[in-house]
């Protein structure tokens, strides 16, 4: 079973009691929900009580805006598949301020299409590099080697070191020990602390520090881009031909402004750093509470290692394709962990769904976590059970949207899964671990562990894969 405190999320919302065939009706019933109260009777049972009263789709007043909150699988899919037709991305203005107006996360229309195509180019360029897995695996080995003389590690911090080093290498071509990497990471940590802070620009506040940190990162990225231009010259065509790194491709583009290029780099760092590190932490957290799953995972990776020739030191793509149970573990960690709980959309026009009207201009929140933990869609929904994925179409399953869906689905989701699988490969072959003390993930709004998931670790003798 999922530890109840793991899913502690807090909302203050105004509910409507009625969803009529004509329009969502405003009511004078104000409901303040502290989900700590839900935890007393079980988190999902508490939510079921809410659904029994309000339904899986209800009206709220969030972000100073009338809002339709959808915990319904069919409506969520309808919203995601009608992006830019009936609905449009609509994040609160403070998010624009901290991410930048050119961020792929907040832009819409043709601008988003151009940036998304660029993101797909990054994924393709990364996966096509001969050193793709080698770079990733080398960084994983470097991180795990640093554990050799330790008895306790804070896994969230270690995961972030790994994912940040990987994405900086992929996007900017920097190795973990370069001074610019440390500088970007320092500023990025400040940026993340203010990402969800109170959105008023007052000197000294987390929000103000985050805005300044973003400016510092932008300056560092621009200096790296200028250095790359000087190295390869101003002939963009020549750059694209001879550059084997994504940054060369980015600099060769003429349909993006300088600010859009910098924002894209920041978006890539944000997506590759935060989401993947949380996924890794959730997988390790759940595996620590599921001995059978951990045993089967370790067996799978021992078999993969045994099949390799003695002179084959690193993993191959064929090895990755054999990690079937690993993929089940990752998918189940995504379902239970709910790294992305919901997304922000607004109705572009009056929208009718199953005979009901969502007024134009209203905010719409498709809540993925509610669908992932819906007992009517998943057997034993509150259990971490990787075997449930053995006979299911994994990423095409409509009741499973950990990376969003539709035209705005995360373009780097496969890279996140590869990184997690590679790290787990070396982790289970080289270490035993158990959680040191109580530490459960909470979400406000992104998922984090209050104590950074401390683990007591023990090297496995004679099993080393590095």
From TrEMBL:
The keyword Membrane applies. GO terms for cellular component: membrane. Heme binds at residue 410. One of its GO terms (molecular function) is iron ion binding. It is found in: Membrane. The chain crosses the membrane at residues 7-26. CDD domains: CYP90-like. Its main location: membrane. InterPro entries: Cyt_P450, Cyt_P450_CS, Cyt_P450_E_grp-I, Cyt_P450_sf. It comes from the Eukaryota. Keywords: Heme, Iron, Membrane, Metal-binding, Monooxygenase, Oxidoreductase, Transmembrane, Transmembrane helix. Its cofactor is heme. Pathway: Steroid biosynthesis; Plant hormone biosynthesis; brassinosteroid biosynthesis; Hormone biosynthesis. Gene3D superfamilies: Cytochrome P450. It catalyses: campesterol + reduced [NADPH--hemoprotein reductase] + O2 = (22S)-22-hydroxycampesterol + oxidized [NADPH--hemoprotein reductase] + H2O + H(+). GO terms for biological process: brassinosteroid biosynthetic process; brassinosteroid homeostasis; sterol metabolic process. Belongs to the cytochrome P450 family. This is Cytochrome P450 724B1. It comes from Dioscorea cayennensis subsp. rotundata (White Guinea yam). The gene is LOC120266534.
């Amino acid at each position: 079973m999922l530890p109840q405190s793991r899913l502690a999320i807090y909302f203050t919302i105004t509910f409507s009691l009625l969803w009529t065939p004509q329009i969502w009706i405003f009511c004078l019933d104000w409901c303040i929900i502290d989900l700590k109260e839900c935890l007393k009777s079980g988190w999902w049972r508490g939510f079921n009580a809410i659904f029994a009263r309000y339904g899986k789709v209800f009206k709220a007043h969030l972000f100073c805006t009338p809002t339709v909150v959808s915990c319904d699988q069919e409506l969520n899919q309808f919203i995601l598949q009608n992006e830019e037709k009936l609905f449009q991305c609509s994040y609160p203005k403070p998010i624009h301020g901290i991410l930048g107006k050119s961020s792929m996360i907040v832009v819409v229309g043709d601008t988003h299409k151009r940036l998304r195509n660029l993101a797909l180019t990054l994924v393709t360029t990364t996966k096509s590099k001969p050193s793709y897995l080698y770079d990733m695996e080398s960084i994983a080995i470097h991180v795990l080697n640093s554990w050799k003389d330790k008895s306790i590690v804070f896994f969230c911090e270690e995961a972030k070191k790994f994912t940040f080093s990987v994405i900086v290498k992929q996007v900017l071509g920097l190795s973990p020990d370069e001074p610019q990497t440390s500088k970007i990471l320092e500023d990025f940590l400040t940026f993340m602390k203010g990402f969800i802070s109170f959105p008023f620009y007052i000197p000294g506040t987390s929000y103000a520090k985050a805005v300044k940190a973003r400016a510092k990162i932008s300056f560092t990225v621009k200096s790296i881009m200028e250095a790359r231009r000087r190295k390869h010259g101003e002939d963009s065509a020549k750059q694209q031909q001879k550059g084997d790194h994504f940054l060369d491709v980015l600099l060769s583009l003429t349909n993006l402004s300088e600010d859009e290029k910098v924002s894209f780099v920041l978006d890539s760092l944000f997506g590759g750093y935060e989401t993947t590190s949380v996924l890794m932490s959730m997988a390790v957290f759940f595996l620590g509470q599921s001995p059978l799953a951990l045993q089967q995972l370790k067996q799978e990776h021992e078999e993969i290692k045994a099949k390799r020739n003695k002179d084959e030191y690193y993993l191959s793509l064929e090895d990755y394709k054999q990690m079937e149970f690993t993929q089940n573990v990752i998918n189940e960690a995504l379902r239970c962990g709910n790294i992305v709980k919901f997304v922000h959309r607004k109705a572009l026009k009056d929208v009718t769904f199953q005979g009901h009207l969502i007024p134009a201009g209203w905010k719409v929140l498709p809540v993925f976590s509610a669908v992932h933990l819906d007992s009517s869609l998943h057997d034993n929904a509150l259990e971490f059970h990787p075997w449930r994925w053995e006979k299911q179409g994994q990423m095409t399953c409509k009741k499973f949207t950990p990376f969003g869906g539709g035209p705005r689905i995360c373009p780097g989701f496969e890279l996140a899964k590869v990184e997690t699988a590679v790290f787990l490969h070396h982790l289970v072959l080289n270490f035993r671990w158990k959680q040191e003390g109580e530490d459960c993930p909470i979400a406000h709004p992104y998922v984090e562990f209050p104590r950074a998931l401390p683990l007591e670790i023990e090297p496995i003798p004679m099993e080393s894969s590095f």
